[in-house]
Amino acid sequence: xxVLSKDLRLQDVTLMYLTTLATLVVILVASYQAAGSSxxxxxxxxxxxxxxxxxxxxxxxxxxxxxxxxxxAREPRHGLLLGMSDRxxxxxxxxxxxxxxxxxxxxxxxxxDSQGLVSVDEQQDYQLIDAQRTSEGFFLLFKRPFSTCxxxxxxxxEGTVHLxxxxxxxxIQSPQKLNLSLLNPGVQRVLLLRxxxxxPPLPRDIRTLDVLAPDITxxxxxxxxxCHIYQLPPDLPKNHIVMYEAAVTPGNEAIVHHxxxxxxxxxxxVIPQYSGSCDSxxxxxxxxxxxxxxxxxxxxxxxxxxxADAGLPFGGEGSSRFLRLEVHYHNPxxxxxxxxxxxxxxxxxxxxxxxxxxxxxxxxxxTPVMAIPPQxxxxxLTGYCTxxxxxxxxxxxxxxxxxxxxxxxxxxxxxxxxxxRGGREVEVVQEDKHxxxxxxxxxxxxKMVNVLPGDVLVTRCRYNTEDRSxxxxxxxxxxxxxxxxxxxxxxxxxxxxxxxxxxPGYLQKFFSLISRFQGGDECSCARPDVVEQFSSLxxxxxxxxxxxxxxxTSPISMHCNQSTAELFPVSRPGLxxxxxxxxxx
Length: 585
Known about the structure:
- The chain starts with 8 loop residues before the first strand and ends in a 23-residue tail after the last strand.
- It contains 6 helices and 38 strands.
- The strands form 9 sheets. Strands 9-8-7-6-12-13 form a 6-stranded antiparallel beta sheet, with no helix packed on it.
- By secondary structure, it is mainly beta.
- α4 (504-517) packs antiparallel against α6 (541-553).
């Protein structure tokens, strides 16, 4: 493959060719303190393909509002493609391309239309910095602004980014010869924008605990969720987890997709030993009581550090001796015989920090009374942590949220939690406009959010059910839905769950109204359950709009739960209205 050319035109569109721009490289190397290296060493990395043939590295300049990206390929063949789209779709994607026509090599900004056909972008926003071939492979370094004011370009913002990637197997005369649907690119998800906050130093007395899969054989199937029960030493005293990181078996970096460690309920004296598929019918039922998240990691995630004056307690009175490790293996190449001992490495200290950190659930209660009609492109559900709950449960100085883990199931498309004070939204705690249930990690906030007694926390989720013919109800099943934000905060309080759902009595008024409108009769017989009621309706635009209106204006039932599962004395129906100017009252 030819990587240098002095020609600067292709079909009357000026493009950047693979020419070394020495001045920019020197500036970049100095900026990222990569002295002594022939290439700048970018701090963030994610493998793109399961075969380990492509990797993306990057760094962020908030001052310049730019991303510096480096594509590594073991062998680029006739070119490379990297793209971004709303949810990994092949249509309407923002692309950067390296390609050759058999004699010359080219680099340029491109896009795909609604059919996946590629065109060169008239506005070239990807700037080439360097291209190198070494004994390690081929490296392509370039940069791009977060926002380009080009309607063809993807706006890079906080939250999940769906990346497209491909290696070109043969020469092409121009990008217009490319059809992404025929190219069959892969999809990878990542957080490109990261907080600039430096990680606090670890204490000298740091200890480690590895919660690992027990040298399993990864099944030769595309998707596997593996569950393993880990038992802590008996009489383990209270410690503080101050950092955790992934411990991935070398060679499996592209297959281990994400991992979580859950603490089991302290009310369970014994959890059966188990190591096997999380979906197996042989899985002990008691594993369902291991839901309290201690750690979560996904591809591309960095080590997770707690604030310098807080740590997550584990061990001691009121904690469980049992942990559940869950590992998601993504193995589309159906590799067989691969052994794995990946997991999470917990770093902890016996010298407790000033504050215990806690985890609180915000959003909607897991209940079928919150449902999404079928054939919806943009349906909203909202959960509230009300002023009465925070007034009762939080200390006078409030709490400080420093991290957040958003959660929905398959229909979820976006999640947002906002802080409301005095009837007005004052701060966004966390938002992901391109959320995917396949990429759920604990995200450090750019700055801590102080929640005071009397504040309201509003969590809103957007769903798409255009591919479904029946309503989707709330619940634990993957085809049911959730709307949750697990916020990590300090100092820890007794408030563990602050969520809501629509008042069931008002939902019954909705069923009566729609039933009469659709020609049904009031039945004096036993009332069917809510799932059956939702399923029995004929769903159309009108019934969907009425349900949406009901959820937006009806009283709610509030769940303000202590860590003992007992309710604070505020969990009764209340009315929260959202005015047209965004005020909450």
